[in-house]
Amino acid sequence: MFYYLLKYVLLGPLLRLVFRPRIEGLEHVPAEGAAIIAGNHLSFSDHFLMPAILKRRITFLAKAEYFTGPGVKGRLTAFFFRSAGQIPVDRSGKDAGQAAIREGLGVLSKDELLGIYPEGTRSHDGRLYKGKVGVAVMALKAGVPVIPCAMIGTFEAQPPGKVIPNIHPVVIRFGKPLDFSRYEGMENEKAVLRAITDEIMYAILSLSEQEYVDRYAAVVKAEEAAATKERKFRRMHLR
């Protein structure tokens, strides 16, 4: 109930005013039945923009940190995500991927739309990074199509670290559904999962026209953070 209050009364109209989203390819999103919408992830706002413009309800797998933050801000963020119907997923530990897959399959089993960011985290520099294979596993196990989606302009509207978004136009572009039924029963084949995931990422890339990096975003972020820390350490000891 609160999901639709956010969508049509509290949040949706505000998002449309601030971002002025232009929607392309909405006809590719099925009017009924289960499907996965796989998109790039450039901004915190992505979680709310897509639900605001889709006619159907969509559920995203959101990182558990959004639900466990400290203080007033943390409680408000958790309330917001729960009210929007998002599902917390713990991304730490070796079983994190399996937990996300179970949650995602639960959504799809109810003939609903599942939103996924195959990169696994927000892009910190606006580029598109290598996708994780969980999206391929869910597509095969549930036997559902994958609709690629590109968020364009959200990085400029709300780059990392910016709390209040800029007023900036946004394009949300959906591509034709990808059918992977030819791989039915092969969800345990690593090469197949990699091929499917790469096909999905290429479809997103074609829609978004981003620069592509064939590495995982989380790894690149960690390396850049470590390099920044090292530079600060050296500057401190050279004084």
From TrEMBL:
Q: Its domain of life? A: Bacteria
One MF term in GO for this entry?
A: acyltransferase activity
Q: Which keywords, in A-to-Z order, does the entry hold?
A: Acyltransferase, Transferase
Please tell me whether the keyword Signal is annotated for this protein.
no
Q: Which CDD domains match?
A: LPLAT_AGPAT-like
Give yes or no: UniProt keyword Cell membrane.
no
Residues in domain Phospholipid/glycerol acyltransferase?
Answer: 35-154
> What PANTHER family does the annotation carry?
1-ACYL-SN-GLYCEROL-3-PHOSPHATE ACYLTRANSFERASE
Supply the name of the protein.
Answer: Lysophospholipid acyltransferase family protein
**Record organism:** Streptomyces iakyrus
Organismal lineage = Bacteria, Bacillati, Actinomycetota, Actinomycetes, Kitasatosporales
